[in-house]
């Protein structure tokens, strides 16, 4: 008789099955983890590459800016050299660029402006001659003022006076100087008219009632002229009395149109009386 201990054990299939199913799950999980790790590494590499691109781009921009700044300084230095050359060699405002260029090229400093284009050099030359021309005009006007040349002076007389002055500026021809003289007289007369208007505004005896008074009596207009005669700004237009009278009449009409000035209380804030 066999003992129950001799009965062979029958493997329990229910216990083996879970072990067989867990292996594929673990394998799949491992693959997922590896895939995620690869994705993380790929993202990290992509981020590093993107950062490198940004750094390279920023570096390229910085280098371009540095090159631009270097070019700017080189150009600015060339302009300074060329302007200094113009100041030393071009003192005649009537020179043309073609004439001046021949003279400038003979100077060794001309090569210091090689970074400038032909257009730049010509533009700087034109700016320089314009400045020289204005300086010459101002010098002539100062001389005319010193000589007491007024709005009624004749050119033939003034020309003789200028010829006697060693400090007189030089012009290419007499016609050019005469144009400057005519401009001086024109500007002087415009300034005299402006000064007369200022005088009228300063004259308190002239009011909004003055126009009506002059229409009633010629003596009122005579009185206005008498009050203005004591000022040099009135006599400065002695050579054009009709225009002077027109300026005075226009001012009277302007005051008449405006009417009486507003009372002080209408233009100034009310002030509290001090206790």
From TrEMBL:
SUPFAM superfamilies in UniProt: FF domain (SSF81698)
An example Gene Ontology CC term for this record: nucleus
UniProt keyword annotations, A-Z: Repeat
Sequence ranges assigned to domain FF in this UniProt record: 75-131, 133-187, 189-254
GO molecular function, one term: transcription coregulator activity
InterPro entries, alphabetized: FF_domain (IPR002713), FF_domain_sf (IPR036517), TCRG1-like (IPR045148)
SMART domains (UniProt xref): FF
Pfam families tied to this protein: FF
Region (Disordered): 1-70, 252-275
Compositionally biased region (Basic and acidic residues): 32-55
Protein name: FF domain-containing protein
């Amino acid at each position: 008789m066999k003992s129950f201990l001799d009965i062979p054990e029958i493997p329990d299939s229910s216990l083996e099955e879970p072990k067989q199913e867990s292996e594929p799950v673990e394998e799949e999980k491992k693959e997922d983890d590896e895939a995620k790790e690869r994705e993380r590494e790929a993202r990290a590499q992509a981020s590093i590459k993107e950062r490198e691109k940004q750094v390279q781009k920023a570096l390229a921009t910085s280098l371009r800016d540095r090159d631009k700044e270097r070019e700017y300084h080189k150009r600015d230095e060339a302009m300074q050299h060329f302007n200094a050359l113009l100041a030393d060699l071009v003192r005649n405002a009537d020179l043309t660029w073609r004439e001046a260029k021949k003279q400038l090229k003979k100077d060794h400093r001309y090569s210091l402006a090689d970074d400038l284009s032909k257009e730049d050099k010509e533009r700087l030359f034109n700016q320089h001659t314009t400045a020289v021309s204005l300086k010459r005009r101002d010098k002539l006007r100062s001389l005319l003022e010193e000589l007491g040349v007024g709005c009624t002076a004749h050119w033939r007389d003034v020309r003789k006076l200028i010829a006697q002055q060693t400090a007189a500026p030089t012009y290419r021809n007499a016609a050019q100087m005469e144009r400057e003289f005519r401009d001086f007289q024109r500007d002087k007369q415009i300034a005299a008219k402006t000064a007369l208007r200022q005088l009228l505004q300063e004259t308190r005896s002239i009011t909004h009632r003055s126009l009506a008074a002059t229409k009633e009596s010629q003596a009122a207009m005579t009185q206005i002229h008498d009050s203005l005669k004591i000022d040099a700004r009135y006599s400065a237009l002695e050579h054009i009395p009709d225009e002077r009278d027109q300026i005075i009449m226009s001012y009277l009409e302007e005051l008449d149109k405006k009417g009486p000035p507003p009372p002080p209380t209408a233009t100034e804030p009310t002030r509290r009386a001090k206790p």
